[in-house]
Design a protein that fits this description.
The protein has about 500 residues and is α/β, with parallel strands linked by helices. The strands form 8 sheets. A 7-stranded mixed sheet has the order 14-17-18-13-12-20-21, sandwiched between helices. The longest helix has 26 residues. The protein starts with 18 loop residues before the first strand and ends in a 9-residue tail after the last strand.
């Protein structure tokens, strides 16, 4: 169980989870704690330390010192420790999954899958890092006009320093390790600021890295209120790179970060364009998977369906039939639709629904809510003047907009300030490619719902959806910089010349 066995040391005598600094689990000096509310019961489930700015300073000092030694650690040794951490993570998937169920209401089966996927990501990163970082480049000067071969240029990848990782509530373990593993294999140290909802899952995950035997100070995890340490962390002079996944906060961070390298994924309004020739059963199945899995609380969830008028009635009926079969209830029962993460989230979603109702959208189901639990809702005949057409609900509510041309669908997609992913359903591959090229999104899925994985695929957003590209290889490259050494020869030298 959570907080017991190998995880017992991360919980203090007052049942408050400790933070991790300099290879030790510690209590904050203020004695204050932050409550984590169970979305299902709406009662306090866990408490974590409320770290102060002074404690953040100490963490940064340790991270900087540890990074210098870690950069001198052989690449094979870094990979070996990552593989060990991955094995421990997968071995202890049950207690970590338990935390995911209780603090973010993730269905039990999906919670276990997230931990296993995270272990696989760490192992893959270790292997990919050895391949990428084990190679450099050798350039010669006479390949550029006007030069003889008097210079040999050697390039390699070196670490940036201290990486600040800030994952979101919906995948707190997986999106944490997607930042931690590339940072570590590249020779960086890492400071993790977990989301409040998801913090305890992150702390359990960090303990797995601790048990693997990473050097003291190399990995830190600070918990606390964003209002007290959020800006202090992101603007800290000790940070050399920020990797953030979340919402509008990322835009504020990017404006304050100055010259720091940034890797950010900030949400989406992923459009699903459905053409007349699409396999409607396939489309309906993917709308259910893409729009309603984890109650729609995914950046890559389908957020708006743009369907050709001629097939709209048929598609809506097929989706309605599948929505009726979704199981609604607590995450412990592995229900399809579980409570959204906070009451404020539920209130925001309800606001979008009420706006659509006032403006004449067709409700394919009755709107129903109990606490944080919102029943799945398909809204037909949505128009562009409704908030739900543009805003990201992050909940189990999906708008359908009927279109009369492909151009109309592309225009709606591109008019959004988001540009994370999108999808197009058609049997005509030529049309699919042309539409994909026209959609202003980082990724377009053809005949499948949007998805972040597999985790080694590039993952990036355009416009307000992000900066930089994720995916294991891209993250390793982003968390390094190129170092060049040039050997100047006294006279031109030509091999076998």
């Amino acid at each position: 169980m959570a907080g017991t066995g190998v995880f017992a040391e991360i919980l203090d005598e007052d049942s408050v989870y400790k933070y991790y600094s300099d290879g030790e689990w510690k209590k904050c000096s203020s004695g204050k704690a932050v409550a984590i509310i169970n979305p299902t019961t709406r009662k306090t489930q866990y408490k974590v330390q409320a770290c102060s700015q002074a404690e953040v300073n100490k963490v940064m000092e340790s991270a900087k010192s540890a990074q210098k030694a870690w950069a001198r650690t052989p690449l094979w040794k870094r990979a070996e420790l990552l593989h060990k951490a991955a094995a421990i993570l997968k071995e202890h998937k049950a207690p970590i999954a338990e935390c995911l169920v209780k603090e973010i209401a993730k269905p039990a089966k999906d919670a276990v899958s997230e931990v296993v996927r995270s272990g696989d990501l760490v192992s893959y990163t270790a292997e990919e890092g050895v391949r990428i970082l084990g190679e450099g480049k050798f350039l010669v000067s006479d390949s550029f006009p006007g030069n003889e071969r008097t210079k040999y240029c050697l390039t390699s990848k070196i670490p940036l320093g201290v990486i600040l990782a800030i994952p979101p509530f919906n995948y707190p373990v997986n999106l944490a390790v997607s930042k931690i593993a590339p940072a570590l294999i590249a020779g960086n140290s890492l400071v993790l600021k977990p989301p409040t909802q998801g913090a305890v899952s992150c702390l359990h995950m960090v303990q797995c890295f601790h048990l693997a035997g990473f050097p003291k100070g190399l990995i830190s995890c600070v918990t606390g209120k964003g209002s007290e340490i959020g800006d202090f962390l992101t603007m800290h002079p000790g940070v050399n790179c920020i990797s953030f996944t979340g919402g509008d906060t990322g835009i504020a961070i990017s404006k304050k970060a100055g010259m720091l390298p940034l890797q950010m994924e900030l949400g989406g309004k992923d459009a699903c364009i459905v053409l007349e020739d699409a396999d409607l059963d396939l489309v309906a199945a993917n709308i259910i998977k893409g729009g309603f899995s984890y109650s729609g609380q995914r950046c890559t969830a389908i957020k708006v369906v743009l369907v050709m008028e001629s097939v709209a009635d048929a598609l809506v009926e097929k989706v309605k039939a599948r929505v009726a079969k979704l199981r609604v209830g607590p995450p412990e029962d592995d229900c399809d639709i579980t409570p959204v993460v906070t009451e404020s989230s539920a209130n925001f979603i309800e606001g979008l629904v009420m706006d659509a109702k006032e403006k004449g959208a067709t409700f394919c189901q009755e709107y129903k809510r109990e606490g944080n639990l919102i029943w799945p809702l398909l809204l037909d005949n949505v128009r562009p003047d409704m908030r739900i057409a543009w805003e990201e609900p992050f909940g189990p509510v999906l708008p359908v907009i009927r279109i009369n041309s492909v151009e109309e669908g592309i225009h709606h997609c591109n008019a959004s300030n988001f540009g994370l992913q999108g999808c197009v359903f058609t049997k005509d591959i030529n049309k699919a490619v042309l539409i994909s090229d026209a959609m202003e999104t980082g990724t377009v899925q053809i005949n499948s719902a949007p998805a972040r994985g597999p985790d080694h695929f590039p993952f990036q957003g355009l416009k307000d959806s992000g900066i930089g590209s994720q995916g294991i290889t891209n993250s390793i490259n982003m968390m390094t910089k190129v170092k060049t050494t040039v050997i100047n020869l006294p006279s031109p030298s030509y091999t076998m010349g």
